[in-house]
Amino acid sequence: MMDEEKDLSTVFEEDGFIEEELRELKKSFAGKNAAPPREVVRHFKRLGRELAMQFLYQYEIAGSDDLTENLENFWKQAEYSGKFAEGRIFRKGRAYAEKLIAGVLEKMDHINSLLEKFSRQWDITRMPVVDKNIMRVAIYELENFPDIPAVVSIDEAIEISKEFGSERSGLFINGILNSVKGELPPGSKNPPPPRTGKGTARPRNNANSIGEKK
Questions:
Q1: What is the CATH number for 62?
Q2: Which residues pair with 195 in a beta bridge?
Q3: Are 74 and 58 in contact (CB under 8 A)?
Q4: Residues 105-140: b if buried by 16+ CB within 10 A, e if exposed
Q5: In the chain, is it the N or the C terminus that has fewer CB atoms within a 10 Å radius of its CB?
Q6: 41: left (phi over 0), alpha (psi -120 to 50) or beta
Q7: Would 140 be classed as within a structural domain?
Q8: 158 within a domain of the structure (yes/no)
């Protein structure tokens, strides 16, 4: 998947963890040949998922163990790229991305075991790096965010793969994530509200129970 990885590196350089490259990246976007700005992401959780995937991709490629330094430089690159306008959506997207990144890294061994289990004949080391990290983010979300419907996490992963992955990424990702979804404990998604002291359930807010709690 070399083309796939090269495409993603045009957003953030694969080894862009030094000041000189950050300056060059900033100048490249300031010149007349600067890439056009990305389409505005409408919801902060979509942005957060994309940013989390991009950081995890870069972190894996760089092979560095200094998480704090890598995160700091990643956000510098995001700022210098000019692709993410500062504002409420970006701030919330960054906060959500950091929550996903921390969770994926904490549970990496478990998440990788699920990827290996459901990828059948695919060795995890041979999986496209972008696809692998899209799925890692989605699996963490599937298992740890009960208020987000499973179908939303899966659909979001597929949509992100359309932008960053290959033509075959969507089918591959959909198959593995649906297998993970099938093993979620009953009632782990959108669990019923807690009961009151009188033994009656609190009424659900229907406006919030339909669609994505993105």
A1: 1.10.940.10
A2: 201
A3: yes
A4: eebeeebeebbeebbeebeeeebbbbbbbbbbbbbb
A5: C
A6: beta
A7: yes
A8: yes
Query: 211: alpha, beta or left, given left = phi > 0 and alpha = psi -120 to 50?
Result: left
Q: Looking at the domain assignment, is residue 189 inside a domain? A: no
Contact 189, 146 (CB under 8 A): yes
The contacts of residue 210 (CB under 8 Å, 6+ apart) are none
Backbone angles phi, psi at 90, to 5 degrees: -65, -45
Could you read off the pLDDT of 98-145 as tens digits, one per residue? 999 999 999 999 999 999 999 876 778 888 999 999 999 999 999 999
Count of domains in the chain?
1
198-to-6, 59, 191, 203, 204 alpha-carbon distances in Å:
60, 51, 19, 13, 17
Conformational region of residue 74, where left means phi above 0, alpha means psi within -120 to 50, and beta covers everything else: alpha
Q: Which domain holds residue 137?
A: 2-184
> How far apart (Å, rounded) are the C-alpha atoms in residues 165 and 50?
12
pTM: 0.69
Q: How many CB atoms lie within 10 A of CB 66?
A: 12
| pLDDT tens-digit map of 154-204 | 999 999 999 999 888 999 999 999 999 999 998 887 655 556 555 444 444
Which residue's structure tokens are 């404990």?
185
Q: Could you give the C-alpha distances from 55 to 13, 84, 85, 87, 149, in angstroms and in order?
A: 11, 15, 18, 20, 24
**Residue 131, SS3 per DSSP:** helix
